[in-house]
Specification:
Layout lengths: L19 H9 L18 H15 L12 H14 L3 H14 L1
Helix pairs in contact: 3-4
């Protein structure tokens, strides 16, 4: 008899929604220039919301980017890092989204 593994609070097991061939194709996709990590969503996030967030992250990673150096207040960056952590995303991704919203307003 196999021992049952207890999952940490907030974790859920889900079946793949894509067939094995599609999953293998996605795993072998090398069109993204840099490796990326997409964090898990909040436990209240639906599967559709999670998939939409992941698709947006992949699309954004394929956009042309250029590195810039700017001076920011430490407290500003710390506040953005806290908000990014609460949203469950990397802080630079969060900052990029905030700047995109500000630029298009």
């Amino acid at each position: 008899m196999q021992k049952k593994t207890r999952l940490p609070k907030g974790f859920k097991l889900v079946d793949d929604i894509y067939p094995k061939t599609v999953v293998e194709k996605l795993e072998k996709d090398t069109s993204v220039r840099d490796p990326m990590t997409i964090t898990g969503g909040h436990e209240s996030e639906t599967l559709e919301e999670s998939i939409a967030r992941i698709r947006r992250a992949i699309a954004e990673s394929k956009e042309e980017k250029k590195m810039y150096s700017i001076r920011l207040k430490v407290k500003t960056v710390d506040a953005l890092k806290r908000k990014a952590a609460a949203a469950g995303i990397p802080y630079q991704t969060y900052m990029n989204a905030v700047l995109d919203i500000a630029a298009s307003a």
